[in-house]
Predict the 3D structure of the following.
Amino acid sequence: MRYNALQILRQGLTGHKGWKPAWRKADPKPEYDIIIVGGGGHGLATAHYLAKTFKHHKVAVLEKGWIGGGNVGRNTTIIRSNYMLHENEGFYEFSLKLWENQERELNYNSMVSQRGIINLYHSDPQRDAYVRRGNAMALNGADPVLLDQAALRKMCPFLNFDNARFPIKGGLMQPRGGTVRHDAVAWGYARSADQQGVDIIENCEVTGFIINDGICSGVETSRGQIKASKIGVAVAGSSSRVMSMAGMRLPMESHVLQAFVSEGLKPLIPGVITYGAGHFYVSQSDKGGLVFGGDIDGYNSYAQRGNLPVVEDVCEGGVSLMPMIGKARLLRMWGGIMDMSMDGSPIIDKTHIDGLYFNGGWCYGGFKATPASGYCFAQLIATDMPHETAKHYRMDRFSRGLMIDEKGQGAQPNLH
């Protein structure tokens, strides 16, 4: 079923009784050409591009829970490409361009809202670092705009300019950045992949890999054995646990990242704002709630919940930046499991096991990377050749000494 204005009118006149499910509740077949383990944004995007762009239709997506129940529905919805390192900036700019055409490509309203993102700076050295980042963005075709304090005051008069412990001197803006409704991204990719023949199989947990003589030929699941010539794994925070079933130890750790939503407020924040003096970022949803987050919790966990000290720390950052939100009530909070790599950058690569491919280590950057991650992973699986923008995301870069340390803070996941 195509979604359009005429269809909405027709369904409205008939009591909305003619809408069909967005995707089939498929049962697993004994064998596929390709299996994608993980029904989150990256796995579903991979299946979509495998079918649409690379014409592989005998594909299954295996999800241990329900579509939208993992990190793709547990984030702060931000999209951007304001990175500095060339290895990252080209990839995320590719992703942002895919976001800009996503709704038309999927025929699905995922509420892509390019309202802009502003990274605040509080000192002259920080301004110089942002100028350097802006130049790197421009070299990769992105859209940096350096704002002085006067321009920033005009755009965001509610910020704490005058009495702040860390005075706000300006910001680096990317006008094309913004937000997307996170769960709608999963639903849109699931619907599109299903329409092209992909089987989306929920409540189907992978419990092992079928590996003989260095060749992976299928998976063991809670719903039986399923064969395939190629298996791609994209399971975010569960990466280490799942890949350990194939005898692999990954250079990453799993940490909890909490996100928060306030009660609904009148329109206040024009886009996305990130605090340069602490780890705090905030936007405002269409319902009026402030959507914000900060640092990961400081311990390893597979639980989708966090601890209260981080709640306090994040809220302190928000009140420091915008004191007037101090009386706003916190409506809800949740946690996602981050697959934190040692250098803060992802991995999209073939493994040493023939037929087994891996996509993970996204740290904080997983949601904004969804379209490009899916496209690049689909190309790798379909052709065994990496996409140009993802060629640096190899698994052996740690042993080769070619880390992609975007923040320049060292090889510890909690620092990224």
Q: What stands out?
A: The chain has a mean pLDDT of 95.
